[in-house]
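Q: Hand in one record:
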Amino acid sequence: MSRTSPTSSNSWEPILPDFYVCSQHYGDFLNAASCFQLLEQLPRGDAPIAYTQRLLGADSHELPFYHTGDGCQISVELGGPGVEPGHNFIVAPDRIWKMAEYVIDQCAIGWGGVGGFITEGFGQMVNHVLAPNFDFGAQFPASSSFLTVTISEKMQVPAPGDDDPTIPLALAQQLKDKEADSKGKAVGNLASSEFFQISGAMEAFREDSGAPSWWDYRQEKTTDDMTYDCDANLGSPHAVDCSKLQYSQLGAGSDTVLISPHVPRILSTGSCEAAISSNVATTITWNAIRVALDMLVNFCVVNPYQSSVGGKAYYGHQIVPQRKRKRANTISGK
């Protein structure tokens, strides 16, 4: 989410609560040149027009629609449980073009071939969830739908507005901020912790085929009582380094690792370091560690609503994965 790339010349950027995400889930070897060629195929125009949701997009005024090239795909689609055939989303073609260009700049170039997505109109979903009479079990209105533009490597139908864990994370952050204004009281009948737990469940089962969309996870059991805390004292790790750590240094999901008492297991890439420690001898799966690190990256390192900081995640009172910037004398030569 919300990172600034030194390589980008794009003066446009999303305005909160809209945000973007760079993630290797959408590819890590994108052909940036092909992405820019596809960008030029997108329609242009500064006048807003109605894009209509269809079962199968057929032309540039129907959603979803896709442009596919050599090692790159641009996907434009609606997200959220309120999406239904015939719903119109009003947006200027130039806005879609700028959104696609932004993700190419920030992710495919700024992160060295990584894919990602960006939202437009996410505030409509935020307003619906923050409403005092919000009911998770009720039908979401079509007006709560929002647009996503995805740049991906694989020829796929990404649907990040439905399936990406950062969507409930962003909603959790909005609810958390609202709760802070309300002195800790839940907003309506839903607490931010519920969206946080939804995101945790999605991270745990993200690679499973047929995994449900975020609004169908509410009754799922999430990982064991995990809590987290962002801590500026742990520094400001670079998001791209943390992403590389996640995809290069973690073991297979169901494999276990033994954590000896007070002997941290250290993982590091560039400016990003993860320390997994315990007060007692503990066996934990790599998947549980992966979920904790994903939470910390999304909430602390690349949170679009705050500056990048380190953080800690806890399973009970034992496991403590941490993210922090390493001291200068420990990252020399990296």
In short: The two ends are 24 Å apart (CA to CA). Residues 29 and 113 are 5 Å apart (CA to CA). The first strand starts at residue 20 and ends at 23. The chain is about 30% helix and 20% strand.
